[in-house]
Design brief:
Strand content: under 5%
Order of helices and strands: HHH
Shape: elongated
Distance between the termini: 48 Å
Number of helices: 3
Oligomer: single chain
Radius of gyration: 19 Å
Largest sheet: none
Length: 119
């Protein structure tokens, strides 16, 4: 029963974090994907906007979970180690989010010579 309550709390917390994305789902792409600028705008919307936002929210959730694990560890080395692993997951989410933010610039530098900013 204790595990079911924890699972319910995690699911409700994650669903509350996902609700803002439902509002963004109604946005239509600004250009068709058949053109290069349409593909560029699609990459900007998906990679930079959605993925970056999702990973930052995920990072905050991981840090909060790690803090809760540290507070409730009561000196148990296994729980402290689990909290440390959760902080490592948060750091990985930040690194991936930063890579997602720079991804369009990397793609543009590979395919164009202008050197302008994509997004």
């Amino acid at each position: 029963m204790k595990h079911i309550k924890k699972l319910g709390a995690v699911i409700s917390g994650l669903s509350a974090a996902v609700v803002p994305f439902a509002a963004l789902a109604v946005m239509a792409p600004s250009a068709p994907i058949s053109t290069l600028s349409g593909f560029q705008s699609f990459i900007c919307n998906i990679v930079v906007g959605w993925l970056f936002t999702f990973l930052i929210i995920l990072t905050v959730v991981f840090v909060l979970i790690a803090a809760f694990k540290y507070l409730t560890a009561a000196g148990d080395p296994e729980k402290v180690k689990s909290a440390g692993n959760t902080l490592v997951y948060a750091a990985v989410a930040v690194v991936i989010a930063l890579f997602a933010r720079g991804f369009p610039l990397i793609i543009e530098s590979l395919f164009t010579t202008s050197g302008g900013v994509v997004c």
